[in-house]
Amino acid sequence: MSERLSILKTYKLYVGGKFPRSESGRVYEVTDSKGNWLANAPLASRKDARDAVTAARKAFGGWSGATAYNRGQILYRIAEMLEGRRDQFAAEVASAEGLSASKAVALVNTAIDRWVWYAGWSDKIAQIAGSANPVAGPYFNLSTPEPTGVVALIAPQDSSFLGLISVLAPAIVTGNTTVVVAAERAPLPALSLAEVLATSDLPGGVVNILSGRTPELATPLAAHQDVNAIDLAGADPALATDLETAAADNLKRVVRPHPVDWRTDPGTDRLLSFLETKTVWHPMGV
Amino acid sequence: MPVFEYAPAPESRAVVDIAPSYGLFIDGEFREAGDGKFFKTLSPSSEEVLSEVAQANAEDVDRAVKAARKAFESWSALPGAERAKYLFRIARIIQERSRELAVLESLDNGKPIRESRDADLPLVAAHFFYYAGWADKLAYAGYGADPKPLGVAGQVIPWNFPLLMLAWKIAPALATGNTVVLKPAETTPLSALFFADICRRAGLPKGVVNIVTGDGSTGAELVAHPGIDKVAFTGSTEVGKAIARTVAGTKKKVTLELGGKAANIVFDDAPIDQAVEGIISGIFFNQGHVCCAGSRLLVQESVQDELLDALKRRMRTLRVGDPLDKNTDIGAINSAEQLARIRELADAGEAEGAERWAPECELPSSGYWFAPTLFTGVTQAHRIAREEIFGPVLSVLTFRTPDEAVAKANNTPYGLSAGIWTEKGSRILSMASKLRAGVIWSNTFNKFDPASPFGGYKESGYGREGGRHGLEAYLNV
Amino acid sequence: MPTTVPAYGKEAAERLASMADVTATDSALRRFLHGLPGVDAVGLQARAATLGTRSIKTTAKAYAIDLAISMIDLTTLEGADTPGKVRALCAKGINPDPTDRTVPEVAAICVYGDMVATAKEALRGSGLQVAAVATAFPSGRAALPVKLADTRDAVAAGADEIDMVIDRGAFLSGRYLEVFEEIRHVKEACVRPDGSAAHLKVIFETGELQTYDNVRRASWLAMLAGADFIKTSTGKVSVNATPPVTLVLLEAVRDFRAATGVQVGVKPAGGIRTSKDAIKYLVMVNETLGEEWLTADWFRFGASSLLNDLLMQRQKLSTGRYSGPDYVTVD
Hints:
The complex is a heterotrimer. Chain A is of the alpha/beta class. Chain A is built from 10 helices and 10 strands.
């Protein structure tokens, strides 16, 4: 009995809740750590980046306006879906990162657990990041965090799934919408994650995922006037400097790249990076 | 006498003794600039030269940064409670000398003594008191069990609230264990130099606070200096962007508190008399030299006529003139350069078809003055609705529905502040959540407090000053 | 803006008649009063406090002191009042400082109704008015016929001005039309046989109304009913005139004139004891209403001890040295 011929997957971008091919129609070859061909990934263009920003902006009002409880529920639902696809992600991570099956499984487990951890933050972050301010006058004064807006995420190159989730989950759980530039040489876990997101209750446009050449996608995103923040986790030092310089044009909030062991407790840094503190005053009188 | 004319009520100048020249304050000593250059600082209400101040160059900045670096070791190692005591001392000395400092501030900046006396100085002292108390409580601030200072902070401040902006910068920096090199604005350096003297009186260790005076080039040297770990800037969005580019690729932490074009939104059910006061204070406080000024009045069409009548009536009672007169409401524009910018934008408003109105108002013959001005018939497309004027010029726009108000209010690259006037509680909360701005004043405007975080969204900058949030800017988190 | 007419003239009644639709029924009046713009207490207090920081010096101070003296309703409202006490007060009102004849006389002497005849006699030949409190002052707790009789008695005895109190109970329980009608009836009772009328001041007792919204509503209600003056307080409760409450009254008369053309006066009363306080009120009038209200025809202080402080300040200004209580008369 001959071995069954497997069905290969055509990987696509994820933009506005849909799975388009690259606007340019181009693809690039993705290989495993040993150089064996794994798949063709879409080679997204600057126009795809532009479309992704448009989709993210469109989704921002609804997602940031959803209740924190609702966002937490949706993120938890995503974790449930990830759990069901653990094997697939483990296999993709193993081949992408050249890891043993057991190590890949451990990373995927950590990633899913981390997603759950972040999901729980949705209705708690305001309580630790906000404050009631005792001003010297008859005023009610309250500071609360709000999402920054559209965040570009240059996903870590060294951790195709755990690293990705570690930058994505904290950005969206607080109400931001995102454009993700997947790890250039290991984009497949990210593109597969899109399939999970699409079948969860996450509104289209909250997460948009692009694969392709990091500088080609990150550069227009860093310069885009309708992007409010950028996480440079996956940018090398020279590129990161260029991107940060471009980001200054509309004063994007910038998270600079720094060495991270993605397996360790992430703390609240990334959650807090894409929040704006809003302070509301009101007189207290009869 | 037929009418109730207020006789001049000038605050005495004798309370402040301004030296003919000032050096740089580096490592606890006043010293001349390396190349011996000075620049003049004027009283904008009379164009009188108040003093000559050293122009710091790159070497001077380097010397100041090195002094701050040297001081950092021992300052950051002090127990928080000891740092607190220095800050409490500073706060007390400021209170004791507050009248002197208020007069100085009004002389150098042009703001009315009523404001420097009743707003600036009390807030300056309060800010030092507030952060003094944090110095030994940082472990409880929510930034980890043992948050660390960053090192040397390079701080560049504007001319609109010279001493208050200094307080906003220096108090949290010192409380968290950083040392600072601060550059005051070119046109208002004096109160920072007096503050240097206060640091000496308080026994603050040498090098913890260094003041380098100069123009924009001094600020640029400071921001670019490789020896600083933190940049804190308050000023224009344009310079803020340049700073963000300068620090790209470095490890310097940055906070920017930049421009604004705040919408002050008045609904037809507003408490109208208080709304008028809020509009007045929103745009004419400090001659409109306020980044969070309510420079765009968005008024609901159904109440437009009534509100504008009341606003004009109120504007007629504004008293423009001698900043040292205790009855002055609006003082001098800070500089000839700023006056030219205000005039240019106001002229553009007229040229673009908006209707200009100002109360009859006699302006002094010397000094820099601009009458409180109102533009009606302004649309979102006008320059005076988009660009920060930073002067006593109000642009009036209208709206019909709450959604339209939100859309117009948010339709700006800025996002520093906004005002809402309505007696309906749920509408306030809904509007407050939809406005993309860092400070929302509802049924009030231009209120400040050291416990209340201040800072912007979008191109109004990032980071917060004030409150627990203000500590983050100076900690390694 | 309609042309201005004084509240006590005939034209004013016609102007008010044109507002009859808002006072036609209890519900119409309620809708109108509750449709007035709200008052934000904190903002109001802040504005009053800022006006209180005006620095009135030298010539301006001299002007303000004399103006304040000329606006005083010099008041005695004690159970222990006697004709002798009232006569002494009248003498003081005519000639506040026996050592200085340039001091202006006060505006009026304010007494209980039974002292009107005494005061009228003592003031004969002076320009001072006699004001009588009426309508079961200070509580206002009596039947309407009693209040009207109280008013008619005072007018018949020669009162030039009647200071009535509103029924705060009716106001606070929302019976606005009842309060409105009561003021109208008292206004009618102010009419003398010759057709002239005593001027009517309507006291709200703002300390009992509690909120500034109530004070604004009471102000409009009283003006619609024909008040010639609106007045804060009786001086008989713990909270009397304050700068913010007076500011609400000033804003109300300003807005009422803008709406109807009818000019109404304002009288803060109770608790104003120092020149500094009085000058703050004058600044408030000046910057809220302007010079048209800066006369005793349109602004009064209900006070007793204020006068001596004004006199001492006046002496200080003219001599350059501080005066003392032994250099002013105690009556």
